[in-house]
Amino acid sequence: MNDVSRISRRIALCSVMETIVHCAPISRASIAKQTGLSKQTISEIARQLEEEGWIRETGRTSGHVGRTAVTYDIVPDRAVIAAVDLGGTKVRAAIADLSCQVLSDVEEPTDKRGGHHVVAQIARLCRQAAAQEGLDFSKVRLAVIGVPGAPESATGRVLMAPNIPGWDSIDVTAALSQELGVESIVENDVNLAARGEHWIGAGADCDDLVLIALGTGIGGGVMVGGELVRGVSNAAGELGFLPFGSDPFEPQSLHMGALERSLGSEGIAERYKELSGRTADVKAIFDAAADGDKEATKTLDETARLLARAVASVAAITNPAKVILSGSIGVRSELVERVHALLPLCFPRPVSVEASALGSKGALIGAAAVGLASLHAALWTAGMQGATIALPSAAIMRERGVAA
């Protein structure tokens, strides 16, 4: 087989696999109709894929006049990926299979010792997640780990993640790959949440969006033309360092960020204490506001003003079709409604703002999206330009009960 024939065959293989991933169970005749490939080519590729264990017969077509036809589906656990969402307080790990299903996840508090202890914890939880699904870990081909802060591609370090001690001084990517025994991709967790929302969440209908995650801290994921904006040091979207909220020239603001100091959970609690003289966590403040507590209500009002300024700031720079609010605090309807009311007062153009559709699973689903796209490419395209496997659309995933 010459090079042209080999490339043509590879592209045909990708087309067949993409159709099966998107439309299974599906017959060879239906694959031919959707791909435009000859029945002979499809029969040859289907035979190869079945012999190698990538697809299987699942039944026969029904409801048609005449002979029925064999239908095929992908073997979902022939190869899988590990998806991880690491936070300062907890870490979650899940398995995603070739059919793009994110399987049940495991979770536990993040090891406060940081460094290699967290690396070992992530590897253990990935193995636990695989075992929970009855999968041999040898089926895991790739791991995608969402982390707070900015992964540094040149050194493998993770910067600007003070809640994970020691990760700014070790090659985290190499350590994870060694501990897991598979290639590991380390990505900012909010970037992954943005990818998740873009795939099957609130941002599935647009390619230009900003996700703002507000919880313990604040971060952002920016997508333009369907691609993440990373910046020269992978730190694009670090909204906590916007120079308002607190004094950006105070030394503390170089460590945590002026906006994060005022808009993160600690800043909200401190604001309420200054107004009321009482100590309460964020949940209690929201509850108090719902019960008519004036100081709690004013705390939420001021918090929403800061959040609206953050939304206006990113809207002025990126002009997104949509801003998605996520995180344990950002998704609260009390804040979303206030931001809707405040934005027209501080920004001249309409800005569409919605709460996250994926909630706490956004980063895990984003990790699955990144991992599955990479795994499909590695398995089928062989690096050939023009040969790709697209993930199933949000509409397809909704039919499978996965998308929001």
Features:
five-stranded mixed beta sheet, 15 strands, Arc Repressor Mutant, subunit A, Nucleotidyltransferase, domain 5, single chain, elongated, alpha/beta, 404 residues
Describe the structure.
- Helix 6 packs across helix 14, helix 9 (265-276) packs antiparallel against helix 11 (294-318) and helix 10 packs across helix 11 (294-318).
- The protein is elongated.
- The two termini are 45 Å apart.
- The strands form four sheets. Strands 6-5-4-7-10 form a five-stranded mixed beta sheet, with helices on both faces. The chain has a five-stranded mixed beta sheet with strand order 13-12-11-14-15, sandwiched between helices.
- It has helices at 3-23, 28-35, 39-51, 115-132, 172-180, 189-200, 251-255, 258-263, 265-276, 282-290, 294-318, 327-330, 333-346, 362-381, 394-399; strands spanning 26-27, 55-60, 70-74, 80-86, 90-97, 106-109, 140-147, 150-151, 158-159, 183-188, 209-214, 218-224, 227-228, 322-326, 353-355.
- 45% of the residues lie in helices and 18% in strands.
- The chain has 404 residues and is an alpha/beta fold.
- The mean pLDDT is 92.
- The protein folds into three domains: 3-74, Orthogonal Bundle (Arc Repressor Mutant, subunit A); 80-193 and 361-381, ATPase, nucleotide binding domain (Nucleotidyltransferase, domain 5, 2-Layer Sandwich), CATH 3.30.420.40; 204-357, ATPase, nucleotide binding domain (Nucleotidyltransferase, domain 5).
- The protein contains 15 helices and 15 strands.
